[in-house]
Amino acid sequence: MAEIYSTKKIMYEKMKHYCAYQERCQKEVEEKLRELKVDQDMADEIMLSLIHENFVKEERYAKAIARGKFRINQWGKVKIKMLLRNSRITTNLIELAMQEIDSIEYQNTIKELYLKKFNSFVKETASVKKQKTIQYLIQKGYEFHDILPVLEGIATQD
Fold first, then answer.
1. What are the tens digits of pLDDT across the range 1-59?
2. pTM summary value
3. How many CB atoms lie within 10 A of CB 70?
4. HSE of 119 in the Cβ direction (CA atoms, 13 Å)?
5. What are the boundaries of each domain within the chain?
6. Which of 92, 67, 82, 93 has the alpha carbon at shortest distance from 141?
7. Do residues 39 and 56 lie in contact, with contact meaning Cβ atoms separated by under 8 Å?
């Protein structure tokens, strides 16, 4: 005899698939449940079940986002932290996620981005190129105190 599915079970299975496809935070799952027009009591029960069965885990999400946004998009820590804060991730978990980023790899990425952007400007003077490149790195989420050692290292090579 075939199993009879309730609306709750169907929604739960749908949300399991949604969470298994890609790492999700609680905020994203809540938004998806609202988008699917699931009533609040059922949404709360589904969310609790997803957390209990480890389909939604904030720590895993935060670490995955930190690694991915740094390695793939080459974002700096400021921009990554902002994204995690907007996803309602706690400060402790954000700091834990930032430890996923290797400091040597971080400095090397800043250097690579700096050189690539600096060399992409052809008509500007060296000081304008430097200023525009620093602004670009700040927009990518890198802090000036992280950019400065790279600038000093590049200046000593010239």
1. 444 446 888 899 999 999 999 999 999 999 999 998 888 999 999 999 999 999 999 99
2. 0.86
3. 22
4. 7
5. 7-52, 58-98, 103-157
6. 82
7. no
Name 12's Cβ contacts closer than 8 Å, sequence gap at least 6: 46, 49, 50
Look up residue 97 and give its amino acid.
Answer: A
Identity at 1, one-letter amino acid code: M
Distance CA 46, CA 6 (A): 13
Of the candidates 100, 92, 89, the residue with the CA atom closest to the CA atom of residue 66: 100
Rounded distance, CA 80 to CA 65, Å?
Answer: 8
Tokens matching residue 51: 């957390």
pLDDT tens sequence across 110-154 = 999 999 999 999 888 988 999 999 999 999 999 999 999 888 877
61: number of Cβ within 10 Å: 23
Q: Using CA atoms, how far apart are residues 126 and 155, in angstroms rounded to an integer?
A: 12
- Quick one: DSSP state of residue 2? P
